[in-house]
Design brief:
Two copies of one chain form a homodimer. By secondary structure, chain A is of the alpha/beta class. Chain A has 16 helices and 16 strands. Chain A is globular and about 65 Å long. At the A-B interface, helix 2, helix 11, helix 15, strand 13 and strand 16 of A face helix 2, helix 11, helix 15, strand 13 and strand 16 of B.
Chain lengths: ~450, ~450
């Protein structure tokens, strides 16, 4: 298949030094080889050099706002002509403030501590061997995203900070914006003397490019991070032959225990559901303990309804208020990402844990209680990446965890789980220091 | 395909409660579902209960030696009749001492600290949230091995200790021995009140069973550990749709730097190559720095030859001794696992690192030097799971690292790297303790 070259950049493939007639497979293989080669040097780059690149990128972005916005306008026009929804267009849209915020994000990443080389553990063996476990970069990271142009910079910057090369694949609607931002990233890399191929943007729109990434680019891709909606994540999780850091959905529960404080419960439930309804840490199901249902259910349900949240409930919840609609079995496993909540009366801690085990997505779940033992049982037994006691589920975020920034949240059990920050984008090795030891 | 039922256990599938006519796919799917169900309870089991099970298994093994050896004799007879090599038969063979050693291994695992629930990190956020990162089990582990019956107990015990369910797939030649050992493991689980399905042995010999495991048993397998030769590991790495902890080969280098101490170099090279030649941490290539080649090359090469190690060298190494044979380019990327070494004069630290990068397998590599800066450069730049300074490469072992025991050594960069001990068989989650915090 001929590669679909972005129209305003006819010589992009020439810059890449591949034939315009090259197949998508060949183009992607080239990106993979270059990323691997760049990763080698990048892994050994010092913090100052990486931070200098990040700051130079931020400067380049802020110095090229009109050019970036001009490309973004073209993307927006095409998307509008294609009939994109308003929310989609809002994600795609850039303005001066948003570009500056992208630059500020890169500067913030520069300010984060460098994880590479950090000693995670160190111990001495009886024979005198000193063993250190030391963070190293992961290698080459592939990021597949949709229409948010800022991901080009955010993900590229985080991967660079952890010493990784990155291959960025933007949704085709954001291609011009992403290319304009990417140009600034490359400028920063060059200024700091780092390999240009450290941050590459897939230069073709064909969906085949995604397929090539999922196959792993001949071993030149170590991990894939999908950033986008459920269908993208589902495809990546289903097809990828390399590890994936992702969550498919956040079916997030708040369980109000028999020993909960009602005022605390109201504040937490309100925030967990309504602060922002479209993020993965937003609550989707409210479980109210039977023991306190008589007082708590009316208070919580009315509070939610008054906040303009639709409530879908079981029979007992429906009895609380005529505005409540019946919940179907499907509701218990639905991520609304909207001002809708499913609600249910539940008979005790074990039943709550069982419900979450059955319907949840192992992302983030919360118990509200003044009973420390019940809280500990919940935190121990609920098998989710993040389990909270008496705090809003909307804290499920790398920034809120103190990671500075995150590339996403993972619900897989391998390597990274929960918020994926710069530290989770590293591997490690063992350094063993001896003075002539041989093994008996 | 009809399942190939081991002849002495005709009712194995009946015990499993599946039809004798069940397909391998169905049998394996059943194992997966049972493992997942068992994993849930197992993850919450306390250390004492798990340790009681491990000790009861050891007792059951030591109390059933004649029965186990009788099954092993049948395996041995069949393998001999099939023309198996002596080294193969030795791996398959059990005797009273070996069974007792297997039991002692399980007791040793019982004595290890329990990783599950251990707080890896804890910090407090400015808003008062206390965040803990706590070890949890991984889930369900698949172990695919060949003819060593002890792996049934070793791998089963390690997975159990970390709170994981395990599905064990033995090479068909060791099926009777593995079943006899597995019976003792199940006895131990029962005695301790743990789910029997925590440790399952694949009851059919079809190779199709391995294929089913590599596909992940409908999401019921979280990681696969292959234990065996290169062809098994290669197949697993190539085909597995779930993460794999493994190393394909250990092309292990010892680089004798310009500032090396000759006596130290002789002892380390001797041990690294000759202590045991068949293990993955055995040295395969010797790199001698040009600056000291005149004295070091004769001393080291003659020492190796006198130890009955064949030496394959470049021109300069060949000039040292007539017993040296020429090394081909293939030799630099060959894992001999035998009393053979490839040897080369190399021009400085950077050239040594470049050689290792090109021909190595990212398993274990060593520098011998009295120059601390050179050592630090080597340890930092050589991208291997284990990098050593002035110590034998045969320390590449979980036991020698102080992990107590290992299920193998991994060269992948994700999750586990280097020796895979009980700690590397865990995941983690975040426990967040609040007192009513909501996100602004």
């Amino acid at each position: 298949m001929r590669a679909d070259v972005p129209p305003t950049h006819p010589d992009f493939l020439i810059v890449m030094n591949v034939q315009q007639s090259a197949s998508v497979h060949d183009i992607m293989a080239t990106l993979g080889r270059r990323a691997r080669a760049a990763a080698h040097g990048l892994g050994l780059a010092g913090s100052e050099q990486k931070n200098a690149a990040l700051r130079a990128m931020a400067q380049a972005l802020c110095g090229n706002i009109p050019a970036i916005l001009a490309e973004n306008v073209e993307d927006m026009k095409a998307a509008q002509a294609g009939g994109a929804a308003a929310s989609y267009l809002d994600r795609l849209r850039l303005d001066e403030g948003r570009v500056k915020a992208i630059g500020a994000g890169l500067e913030m990443i520069a300010d984060l501590p460098d994880p590479v080389g950090r000693v995670m553990d160190a111990w001495e063996r009886p024979n005198g061997l000193r063993i250190e476990r030391v963070r190293t970069p992961l290698g080459v990271i592939g990021v597949i995203f949709e229409s948010r142009p800022n991901v080009t910079a955010d993900a590229g910057g985080l991967c660079l900070k952890a010493g990784n090369a990155v291959i960025l694949r933007t949704g085709s609607d954001a291609m011009r914006s992403a290319m304009a931002i990417h140009e600034c990233m490359v400028k920063g890399l060059k200024e700091a003397g780092l390999p240009e191929d450290a941050i590459q943007l897939v230069p073709v729109k064909d969906r085949e490019a995604v397929g090539e990434m999922l196959k792993g680019l001949d071993g030149n891709l170590d991990v894939i991070v999908p950033r986008g909606g459920k269908s993208l994540v589902a495809r990546v999780q289903e097809e990828a032959r390399v590890p994936v850091f992702a969550h498919l959905e956040g079916i997030v529960h708040v369980y109000v225990h028999a020993k909960a404080d009602l005022e605390k419960a109201k504040e937490i439930v309100r925030n967990a559901k309504m602060r922002r309804t479209g993020i993965c840490g937003a609550a989707e199901t409210l479980l109210i303990d039977k023991a306190v249902a008589d007082t708590f259910a009316p208070a919580l349900v009315k509070m939610l309804l008054d906040e303009h949240c639709a409530v879908r409930g079981d029979a007992a919840i429906q009895a609380v208020d005529t505005r409540v609609t019946p919940a179907s079995d499907e509701d218990w496993s639905t991520e609304y990402l909207d001002a809708i909540i499913s609600a249910k009366i539940i008979d005790g801690l074990d039943a709550a844990i069982t419900h979450i085990e059955r319907y949840g997505s192992h992302h983030t779940d919360c118990i509200i209680t003044e009973d420390a033992a019940a809280a500990e049982t919940f935190l121990r037994e609920v098998d989710s990446a993040i389990v909270l006691h008496n705090a809003s589920t909307q804290f499920a975020d790398g920034g809120e965890f103190g990671f500075g920034a995150e590339i996403g949240i993972a619900t897989g059990r391998m390597h990274a789980r929960g918020p994926v920050g710069v530290e989770q984008l590293t591997s490690f090795k063992y350094k063993v220091h001896g003075n002539g030891q041989v093994r008996p």
